[in-house]
């Protein structure tokens, strides 16, 4: 149950992290932009973990265009398509106070008057959802210097906002992930449980094993986007928790992955 739940729930968060795969670049010449985007495109397909793959990165003269093949068992393309402003808002917030490398990339794009276009393609249906940021919008983001602490919180909120577009979602036969939110000192997945299939008492009795399974699954997901999500939680001093709530009894039990465990999952660079 645990592995399946993690595969479903963590994948959503990965959508907001694609910008951080961009290469470090200097200069503002359009020829330079075309060259480095060409180099990046040769690295495709780029594995984004359970969520899918980046299939191409091109510069079309107006925009840097990312095309992503999305796992529709995790990502509901129609929901993204029906919520363009939420998708755009979430991605915009992710650019606030970017790392030095990403900021240089954004500056290069802005100086070349390039926008950003992200195309999400369902791996089964072929349905597409598109998010665009114009050159002017990118410039505005670059010129916005938010407080670092506030920026970290904003990035976390952006990730959760995007994730919640997908919920509720059936994670396994017995568990439905209803939503994800910040509660106290944790980023919490709210999960309703069919108690005929899995009593809450069973989760409580096997809490150590459940936690071990979650930690093992998270630690094995070393793709950049999952790493970014974990780091965002750490930067905001938030643990990750799964709150299992019985549909019939309302009884609940929390399985918490503390900061100490999350920090061990980060790959040193």
What does this structure look like?
With 269 residues, the protein is of the alpha+beta class. Helix content is 44%, strand content 24%. Strands 1-2-3-4-5 form a 5-stranded mixed beta sheet. A hairpin with a 5-residue loop joins strand 4 (115-122) and strand 5. Helix 1 (2-13) crosses helix 9 (207-220), helix 4 (84-94) packs antiparallel against helix 7 (148-164) and helix 7 (148-164) crosses helix 10. The longest helix is centred in the middle third of the chain and has 17 residues, at 148-164.
List keywords for this structure.
single chain, 269 residues, alpha+beta, five-stranded mixed beta sheet
Please indicate the percent range of residues in DSSP E strands (runs of 2 or more): 15-25%
| Cα end-to-end separation | 32 Å
Helix run count: 11
Secondary structure category: alpha+beta
Radius of gyration based on Cα positions: 19 Å
State the low-pLDDT regions, or none: 2-28
| Total beta strand runs | 10
**Level of helix content?**
40-55%
Major sheet: 5 strands, mixed
Mean pLDDT: 82
Strand and helix map with partners:
Layout: H1 2-13, H2 30-42, E1 46-47, E2 52-59, E3 63-70, H3 77-82, H4 84-94, H5 100-111, E4 115-122, E5 128-133, H6 135-142, H7 148-164, E6 169-170, E7 175-183, E8 186-193, H8 200-205, H9 207-220, H10 224-235, E9 239-246, E10 252-257, H11 259-265
Parallel strand pairs: 3-4, 8-9
Antiparallel strand pairs: 1-2, 2-3, 4-5, 6-7, 7-8, 9-10
Summarize the structure.
The chain has 269 residues and is α+β, with helices and mostly antiparallel strands.
């Amino acid at each position: 149950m645990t592995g399946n739940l993690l595969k479903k729930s963590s994948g959503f968060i990965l959508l907001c992290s694609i910008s951080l795969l961009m290469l470090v670049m200097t200069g503002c010449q359009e020829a330079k932009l075309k060259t480095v985007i060409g180099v990046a495109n040769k690295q495709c397909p780029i594995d984004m973990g359970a969520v899918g793959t980046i299939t191409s990165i091109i510069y079309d003269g107006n925009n840097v265009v990312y095309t992503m093949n999305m796992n529709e068992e995790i990502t509901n393309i129609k929901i993204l398509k029906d919520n363009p402003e939420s998708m755009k808002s979430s991605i915009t917030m992710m650019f606030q106070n970017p790392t030095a490398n990403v900021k240089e990339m954004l500056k290069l794009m802005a100086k070349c008057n390039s926008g950003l276009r992200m195309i999400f393609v369902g791996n089964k249906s072929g349905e597409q959802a598109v998010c665009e940021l114009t050159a002017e919008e990118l410039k505005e983001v670059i010129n916005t210097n938010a407080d670092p602490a506030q920026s970290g919180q904003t990035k976390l909120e952006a990730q959760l906002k995007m994730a919640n577009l997908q919920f509720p979602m059936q994670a396994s036969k017995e568990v439905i992930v209803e939503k994800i939110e910040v509660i106290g000192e944790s980023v919490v997945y709210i999960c309703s449980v069919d108690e005929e299939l899995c009593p809450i008492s069973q989760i409580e009795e096997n809490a150590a094993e459940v936690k071990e399974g979650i930690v093992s699954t998270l630690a094995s997901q070393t793709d950049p986007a999952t790493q970014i999500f974990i780091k965002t939680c750490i930067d905001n001093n938030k643990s990750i928790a799964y709150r299992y709530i019985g549909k019939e009894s309302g009884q609940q039990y929390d399985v918490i992955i503390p900061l100490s465990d999350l920090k061990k999952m980060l790959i040193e660079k």
